[in-house]
Amino acid sequence: MRRVLVLGGTGEARGLAERLSADGRLHVTYSLAGRVREPRTPVGEVRVGGFGGPDGLADWLRRERVEAVVDATHPFAGGITANAVEAAGRTGVPVLLLRRPGWQPGPGDDWHHVASLPEAAALLPGLGSRVFLTTGRQGLSHFAALDLWFLVRTVDPPEPPLPAHTTTLLARGPFAVEDELAVLREHRIDVVVTKDSGGTMTAAKLTAARELGLPVVVVRRPEPPPAPSADTVDDAVRWLDSVLGTRDPAEGLHPHTG
Which residues does 167 contact at the CB level (< 8 Å), separation at least 6? Predict the structure, then answer.
């Protein structure tokens, strides 16, 4: 059987792993970093925990005789992606970055793009005093010194230090527009902060903010290392067919030039 490693944590990763696992020619390992307490996992072999950096991952790829790696982690999991590309380069194993496209502003949106969480924090006092913060449970210390009120939504309890005036909302997407409108109105939110995660799972807050005329601070994605990339599960499957020699070379994939 051909051995494939899928670095997961996203809906696309789960969908890809389940689709590949249905192919009797493939042995798929779905790997999670272990940062979420009760992650959603696909049917099949699941590995939880780090590899020990690029050295550990390279050793694991050799030991397990992996023939292809698909990094389908969160667009902001930059360290994992860098390790995957480096380890694949050392071992000669083909690697693909599966990344859903980022969000794009539309008519009526009031978006403010920033490069980092510290930049987002610096921008907030000029935009509002009641903040809906949806950037995940890590990195909240960048907002701790602000004398603003925060509604922090995360899947698991957030990591301190937190802003002094914080209400925590534990929830997991997908979210509906009507529910997001209710949250924004109930808590009298006047500015939303998000990472550019892309996809539909959490995009409803952007529509709700647009309908209420609220500004949104959007943290740009980190630039990934140079590697082939795909936007969809279908493209990732075609890439795997190509590198494993089961079909004609895929079309529509594009190398990321950094």
Answer: 149, 150, 151, 152, 187
Can you read off the two tokens belonging to residue 249?
Answer: 């070379």
Q: How many CB atoms lie within 10 A of CB 65?
A: 11
Rounded to whole angstroms, the Cα distance separating 152 from 46 reads: 30
Q: Which residue has the tokens 């500004």?
A: 215
pLDDT tens-digit readout, 130-151: 999 999 988 999 999 999 999 9
pLDDT band at 114 (very low <50, low <70, confident <90, very high): very high
| Residue 17 Cα to chain centre, angstroms | 16
d(CA 49, CA 33): 5
- Cα–Cα nearest to 5, from 72, 55, 52: 72
CB 138 within 8 A of CB 154: no
Q: Spell out the SS3 assignment of 175-244.
A: CCHHHHHHHHHHCCCCEEEEECCCCCCCCHHHHHHHHHCCEEEEECCCCCCCEEEECCHHHHHHHHHHHC
Q: Token digits for 202? A: 């959490």
CB 60 within 8 A of CB 51: yes
Per-residue pLDDT at 254 exceeds 70: no
The pLDDT tens digits for 18-71 are 999 888 889 999 998 766 566 666 666 888 888 999 999 999 999 999 999 999
